[in-house]
Design a protein that fits this description.
Largest sheet: 6 strands, mixed
Number of domains: 2
Strand order of the largest sheet: 1-2-3-4-5-11
Subcellular location: Nucleus, Nuclear pore complex
Helix content: under 10%
Protein name: Nuclear pore complex protein Nup88
Number of helices: 7
Strand content: 25-35%
Organism: Mus musculus
Distance between the termini: 31 Å
InterPro entries: Nucleoporin_Nup88, NUP88/NUP82
Keywords: mRNA transport, Nuclear pore complex, Nucleus, Protein transport, Translocation, Transport
Shape: globular
């Protein structure tokens, strides 16, 4: 799932004719030709009477929009199929339903792609799989309609394998999460989280050697600012599952162990499966770049015995100040957390009393909890053993036009969530109110709204 970037215009007329485009007719024909077992595989039952199932397959996100075009990844052809959503030279006339461009990989990936991700500069697309990653370079546009290479039916595209030697030599490792470094001013960099609990940052100029490495386990105690009584996640076998960048901020020189000046950097929030969130700061502005201390786990208020779930799977930082984190679990829970500066009464101040280099760790105030309806439910009073224990990984997506809205895609469909209380939150934080725990009172006044956009897991047949 990916939202279109840029205006579409023409009153969204493309929605009426797009289902009849030849590309989508072929897609539907391919689905019809699937065997029943293949078609039902993602939504297989988990009832006790059924045989045990393999782990969840990753939800595929193989489409994105750019300007007035839709890009769809064709796995069999190792190419993007590009469908124009506007007629020739703009206007309200629909384009020919048989016309599209094909962006063909010269050096196709040898692994299965389950996600495509457009770079911040919109010049590259990351082809992401569990066993590797490549960056496809989008070709030049020219001509009256600004099509790729003047409108050629098939355009050859160069690809850049990222960490190819690393994945080839480490066959047991898998890629758990990948994202572009958010800067549009620097050379493109891509950030990888692998199953060895390490984050590596690669430049497209040096795709085989990481620019920076962040080791998340077996770290030296001096490299962490720890809360009192912290349980070491590495000793418990817990690993990071996802990360996300926040907007640029000015960071204290202590975090980067600088002597002269503060640093402008991106906060990097790292989510562990047990629900803990860590924080570091990344700046690649000056070679070879800076990585701040690893802070955490960030304290959560109000505290919960289960740390708000043990099946965390995704994290999203909404582009607002203060940062708002969305943490998703496989059981369908969403936690909206406001990132605020550490309080003086927190245990971490015990360290600051003797360590002048220490900094307050931000706290996560759980503003509200939302439970998604991952599957349709029976009428009240009827038990549904098929849906009672259904869970699946959830992917979180920013809305490119509305910073207070985001979307959830998963095996069972798509949800859209809007945070209607952000304005009241800003008003509260701008007041003289000092009791930050009273943030919880705001959620009683105005809750977020959740729309169930698409359900792909209907009620089972009886």
């Amino acid at each position: 799932m990916a939202a279109a970037v840029g205006p579409l215009g023409d009153g969204e007329l493309w929605q009426s004719w797009l289902p009849n485009h030849v590309v989508f007719l072929r897609l539907r024909e391919g689905v019809r030709n699937q065997s029943p077992a293949e078609a039902e595989k993602p939504a297989a039952s988990t009832s006790p009477s059924c045989p045990s199932l393999p782990p969840h397959l990753p939800t595929r996100n193989l489409v994105f929009g750019l300007g007035g075009e839709l890009f769809l990844w064709d796995a069999e052809g190792s190419a993007f199929l590009v469908v124009r959503l506007r007629g020739p030279s703009g206007g309200g006339v629909e384009p020919p339903l048989s016309q599209y461009q094909r962006l063909l990989c010269i050096n196709p990936p040898l692994f299965e792609i389950h996600q495509v991700l457009l770079s911040p500069t919109q010049h590259h697309v990351a082809l992401i799989g569990s066993k590797g990653l490549m960056a496809l370079e989008l070709p030049q546009r020219w001509g009256k309609d600004s099509e790729f290479e003047g409108g050629k039916a098939t355009v050859n595209c160069s690809t850049i394998p990222i960490a190819e030697r690393f994945f080839t030599s480490s066959t047991s490792l898998t890629l758990k999460h990948a994202a572009w470094y958010p800067s549009e001013m620097l050379d493109p960099h891509i950030v990888l989280l692998t199953s060895d609990n390490v984050i590596r940052i690669y430049s497209l100029r040096e795709p085989q050697t990481p620019t920076k490495v962040i080791v998340l386990s077996e770290a030296e105690e001096e490299s962490l600012i720890l809360n009192k009584g912290r349980a070491y996640t590495a000793s418990l076998g817990e690993t990071a599952v996802a990360f996300d960048f926040g907007p640029l901020v000015t960071v204290s020189k202590n975090i980067f162990e600088q002597k002269d000046r503060d640093v402008v950097a991106y906060p990097l929030y790292i989510l562990y499966e047990n629900g803990e969130t860590f924080l570091t700061y990344v700046s690649l502005l000056h070679s070879p770049g800076n990585i701040g201390k690893l802070l955490g786990p960030l304290p959560m208020h109000p505290a919960a015995e289960d740390n708000y779930g043990y099946d965390a799977c995704a994290i999203l930082c909404l582009p607002c100040v203060p940062n708002i984190l969305v943490i998703a679990t496989e059981s369908g829970m969403l936690y909206h957390c406001v990132v605020l500066e550490g309080e003086e009464e927190d245990d971490q101040t015990l360290e600051k009393s003797w360590d002048p280099r220490a900094d307050f760790i931000p706290s996560l105030y759980v503003f509200e909890c939302v439970e998604l309806e991952l599957a349709l439910k029976l009428a009240s009073g009827e038990d549904d053993p098929f849906a009672s224990d259904f869970s699946c990984p959830i992917k979180l997506h920013r809305d490119p036009k509305c910073p207070s809205r985001y979307h959830c895609s998963h095996e069972a469909g798509v949800h859209s969530v809007g945070l209607t209380w952000i304005h009241k939150l800003h008003k509260f934080l701008g007041s003289d109110e000092e009791d930050k725990d009273s943030l919880q009172e705001l959620t009683a006044e105005q809750k977020c709204f959740v729309e169930h956009i698409l359900c792909t897991k209907p009620l089972p047949c009886r």
